[in-house]
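User: Please check token order:
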Amino acid sequence: MRATFRNCVSAEDYAQFTLYFIRNRQDFSVEFTLCDTLFHIIDSIDQSQIILIFDPMNTVIGWGHYRYVNTQNQHDPAGEIVFVESVIVSKEYRSTRLFVTGLCYLVNQIARENTHIKLVQFRAQEQNVYLNRLYSKFAQISGQHEGNYGMENLYSSEFQRLQSYLNRVNKAPILN
């Protein structure tokens, strides 16, 4: 399945993100309520970059959501750390190919936006065996913390290392 990616820039883009998030909040966390979803969107949308994922019919099938932070984990548009908040794709579209394509898009987007990036970080719930196995292919667990819905592993990868990994597994070049 071919997918396209587009950065949220307009009010319509943000509305599409919000509606998709509300409808698919259980993919974010099975315990995520509508109230949790709305607070999460309001709390993070102004400090985050959001990428929408579309199917060939131009229907939203997912999103990627990230922000730049400094070493104290505070919002910093020129920060050296990019924290990937979440990536959600409708179950029927999930595949290794889409994952790699989306990760390449994300890494290229980050490289264009912020030349100071040194580290990529993201979380996975400890009990999610699939995600932990997948993420360990290109990042290392650098910590754990108690999230709102259980223990979470914090993964980290040097940005250059992630770019090198993607260049090896993908045929399209990744920006360096």
